[in-house]
Specification:
Layout (H helix, E strand, L loop, with lengths): L2 H14 L10 E5 L15 E3 L21 E2 L2 E2 H10 L3 E4 L23 E3 L5 E3 L5 H11 L2 E6 L6 H12 L5 H8 L10 E4 L12 H14 L8 E8 L3 H10 L6 E8 L14 H12 L1 H15 L6 E9 L18 H16 L4 E7 L9 E4 L2 E4 L1 H9 L6 E3 L1 E3 L3 E3 L6 E3 L1 E8 L2 E8 L6 E7 L6 E7 L18 E2 L3 E3 L4 E5 L3 E7 L1
Parallel strand pairs: 1-22, 2-5, 2-13, 5-8, 8-9, 9-10, 10-11, 11-12, 12-13
Antiparallel strand pairs: 1-17, 3-4, 6-7, 14-15, 16-20, 18-19, 20-21, 21-27, 22-26, 23-24, 23-27, 25-26
Helix pairs in contact: 4-5, 4-6, 6-7, 7-9, 8-10, 10-11
């Protein structure tokens, strides 16, 4: 037997020996309609993130007007149409780490006159700045989404950021606004969300929180409102760095509109593992890390509640998602990874967690939109594939702007073969919108279906829905091949005297519409 065939068989053997909860009794899930308190799930929870990194921008979103790949004014047409179907609410740009090396003047004016620089954060790739302010903001208009500009604090100046804001949003006759007009845009754009730096604790300047707090106050003094009030976002903590949040709440408080926390589902920063070839232990550790975002969120919220009980400062999770090794043979600095059914499960349970805390969390931006980390879409020359994560976002778009409904259930845990790792067997969320109720269920169990007895405070009729699952947790969609992971109609819900009986297959994400 060839060596490359041994790896999948060894992994399969590992999964078959997984000892999991095999209780055949139904899990009781109650939709607590009467406990709903008007908590709306902001559509911005389903935000996206685009950075000048690898082929996210060039070859992903943008191919240029002269490309043989079908495009609309330079925007890749197949990707543009796929993103429109997602109803993207907000798009963050130009980074990421790239943002604090980005000087906006490099990316305006005639293409042949734009600066050519080395992208020193991500692989030393040549950046020709053919995708700049105009190209990004026009893309947001095509997608009908809000732009989220991440400003340069690390290597920039308050004057530079102030003039960028004026260039984008002022309809005055100032020199800067007239420069925009000379470059082809008469009317100012609508820009609401402004990030004051990115990861100031790391690639954005390796700052102390006390120093960054003072910089935030300085930069926001000079970024003025022209076409509307700017929503100013502070560079928040990485993971569980609660001291960063404590300092910002003390030193800045309600002078900021939001704090942006970053949390990645990564096995080990030194040994991230493969996106497609992983063991039982790696699957369990990955999901345990993904579930851990809830403790992270609760910790930051507790600090914010102490200083801001009125919840005037929002919490954003503007970078989140899985992070594995790059695909073999690709540039290590381009962060190109495949997306399997495992990633879909991480996406579903993460969104379910965000829904619970939207009294404080007002935006989340998965990293990233195309060709980078846990992306929606992958491209290769003229080919495009939709990832399992894309399908989760498309199925979940019914939750955008819906009223959150608390759900009561206890499904127990699944346990690894060596009994050292355990994770919740199910993740469930519910909401209502336009007179309809929606329930999403994620079954993390790799072998066993889950029988649910679903009831509610209000009458429950029948149910329709869709399911995303696969034959194998390692399955992914690849170029030139039929899709292995895509949504299908769900037929596992049946009306009973007391509500619904629902059978959720192993390793699946299900979204139901309850009559």
């Amino acid at each position: 037997m060839k060596r490359h065939l041994l790896i999948p068989l060894m992994l399969l053997a590992g999964f078959l020996c997984m000892a999991q909860n095999t209780d055949e009794s139904s899990t009781i899930i109650r939709i607590q309609d009467d406990a709903a308190r008007g908590q709306i799930i902001p559509k911005e929870i389903y935000g996206q993130f685009s950075e000048h990194l690898g082929s996210c921008i060039y070859g992903g979103l943008w191919v240029g007007k002269d490309s043989p790949i079908p495009n609309r004014d330079g925007y890749r047409l197949d990707v543009l149409n796929a993103l429109k179907k997602l109803q993207v609410p907000v798009l963050r740009w130009p980074g990421g780490c790239f943002a604090d090396d980005y000087h906006w003047m490099d990316g305006i004016g005639p293409l042949e006159q734009r600066a050519r620089i080395s992208n020193n954060n991500w692989g030393g790739t040549l950046e020709d700045n053919s995708f700049g302010t105009h190209e990004f903001l026009n893309l947001c208009e095509l997608l009908d989404c809000e732009p989220y500009i991440s400003g340069n604090v690390g290597s920039g100046t308050p004057e530079e950021l102030a003039k960028w804001v004026e260039y984008m949003t002022s309809d005055s006759q100032s020199t800067v606004a007239n420069m925009r007009r000379a470059n082809g845009r008469d009317k100012a754009w609508k820009v609401k969300f402004l990030g004051i730096g990115n990861e100031a604790w790391g690639c954005g300047g390796n700052m102390r929180p006390e120093y960054y707090a003072d910089l935030f106050r300085r930069y926001t003094t000079y970024t003025r409102n022209y076409g509307g009030r700017l929503y100013k976002i502070a560079s928040g903590a990485s993971d569980f760095d609660y001291n960063w949040t404590e300092v910002l709440m003390q030193a800045v408080g309600t002078k900021m509109d939001a704090i942006a926390v970053h949390y990645y589902t990564v096995l080990d920063w030194n040994r991230k593992g493969s996106a497609t070839q992983f063991s039982e232990d790696e699957y369990m550790r990955c999901l345990r890390r993904a579930f851990g975002i809830e403790d992270c969120i609760k910790g930051h919220i507790a600090i914010m509640d102490k200083y801001d009980p009125q919840k005037r400062v929002d919490l954003l999770v503007d970078e989140w998602g899985t992070w594995f090794n790059v695909e073999p043979g690709t540039n290590p600095g381009h962060l190109f990874q495949q997306s399997t059914m495992r990633d879909a499960i991480v996406a579903g349970l993460s969104l379910n967690i965000f829904h619970k805390y939207t009294d404080r969390i007002k935006m989340a931006n998965i990293a990233q939109i195309v060709n980078v980390l846990q992306s929606m879409i992958l491209t290769k020359d003229s080919q495009m594939v939709l990832t399992p994560t894309y399908h989760v976002f498309e199925m979940y778009k019914v939750f955008q702007g819906a009223e959150f409904i608390p759900v009561e259930y206890s499904a127990g845990n699944i346990v690894s073969g060596d009994q050292e790792l355990e994770i919740p067997a199910l993740s469930v969320t519910a909401a209502r919108k336009d007179g309809k109720r929606y329930v999403a269920v994620v079954n993390t169990d790799l072998k066993h279906e889950r029988k649910l007895a679903l009831s509610a405070d209000k009458t429950v009729g029948g149910a329709t829905g869709r399911i995303l699952t696969a034959k194998d947790i390692h399955d992914y969609n690849d170029f030139g091949k039929s899709a292995k992971v895509e949504p299908k109609p769900f037929t596992g819900a049946h009306k009973t005297r007391n509500g619904l009986e629902v059978t959720i297959p192993a390793m699946s994400v299900v979204v139901l519409e309850i009559q």
